[in-house]
Amino acid sequence: MPVSSRTTAVCVLAAAAINPAFAGGGGLLATSGLQSIEGSAGGGLTTWAMIAGHGEEGERAMGAGVARAITDGFALTSASAYASWNNRFEVSLARQTLELDALVEMGATDRTDVSLDLIGFKYRLGGDPVYADYGQFAVGALYKHNRDADLVRLAGAERSSGVDAYLAWSKLWLDGPWHRNWLLNVTLRATQAHQLGLIGFEDDYRLSAEAAVGVFLNPHWVVGAEYRNKPDRLSNAAEQDWADVYLAFFPNKRWALTLGYLDLGSIGGVDDQHGWYAAVQYGR
Q1: Best CA proximity match to 49, nearest among 129, 163, 143
Q2: Strand 201-218 with 221-228, pairing
Q3: How far is Cα 128 from Cα 34, in angstroms, rounded to an integer?
Q4: What pLDDT, in 10s, does the model give residues 75-84?
């Protein structure tokens, strides 16, 4: 089912409560990235070193967005909000709701959906994606809480809450091959999660890697691809790496719209999960 109006309102109000001196728009268009399905600045599936919003030093930014991904057996809705300061620090909130149509049809559960709450923090260590030769580095953490402890136990996971920690690097090359601007991001993540946490967490951590590339067709349109390595630790529910290709449109510095095609592999024992992803976000 689509995310509730109450959930969307919570995310928007959380951003609105900051009441900052808003960004003056110093950052280049699209250099803030998008809001990932986990709420932090990035692509659809991956987290980037970018700080959300177009704010520069001395400026603040905030925004909110909604994303929807639909595969053959599942549907995921993510509502999120962010606030950032000085192009240095970012905080984000998100609620994910996964519809379990395939599992209900198989008789594996009578629950129609499961929800995950996320709180994210990101800090830019240094650099700049455009003007620094070595790009930009950031560290961050995501606290995740699964709201369905019974389903977590049924899946064989050890915990209903967990924390991800990551180190990300982003670099944007102006006037690269074919006279286009090119973006590259690499993220190393330590995670306790199974399927992002939607089917629970383990006590110990595993390392995983993420990568994303984007090509600016012009200042407003970006086409690219992402790959997210994921740990596979549940014996009764294989977990495979995720990938997508996407097209993002930035009409201005406030709006961003994204459409992508997903390959999510096996989810909850249901193989060959492919589908579409769409997102809209607003920031200021």
Answers
A1: 129
A2: antiparallel
A3: 17
A4: 999 999 999 9
The pLDDT of residue 238 = 86
> What mean pLDDT comes out for the span 177-197?
96
Residues contacting 87, CB < 8 A, separation 6+: 27, 51, 53, 55, 56, 57, 59, 124
Q: Is the pLDDT of residue 283 over 70?
A: yes
Phi-psi region of 115 (alpha: psi -120 to 50; beta: other; left: phi over 0): beta
Greater confidence (172 vs 27) lies with 172
DSSP for 258-280? EEEEEE---BTTB---EEEEEEE
What is the per-residue pLDDT across 31-47, written as a single tens digit (0 to 9) for each? 888 999 999 999 999 99
CA 259, CA 184: separation in Å to the nearest integer?
19
CA-to-CA distance for 115 and 102, rounded, in angstroms?
16
Amino acid at residue number 178: W
The token pair that represents 171 in the structure block: 């670099």
Task: Identify the burial level of 105 via C-beta atoms within 10 angstroms of its C-beta, where 0-12 means exposed, 13-18 middle and 19 or more buried.
Answer: exposed
Q: What is the mean pLDDT of the chain?
A: 89
pLDDT of residue 55: 87
The answer to whether 99 and 74 are in contact (CB under 8 A) is yes
In this structure, the number of other CB atoms found within 10 A of the CB of residue 173 comes to 14
233-256 as b/e: b if 16+ CB within 10 A: bbeebebbbbbbebebebeebeeb
The predicted structure's pLDDT at residue 2: 39
**Residues 32, 146: Cα–Cα separation, whole Å:** 28
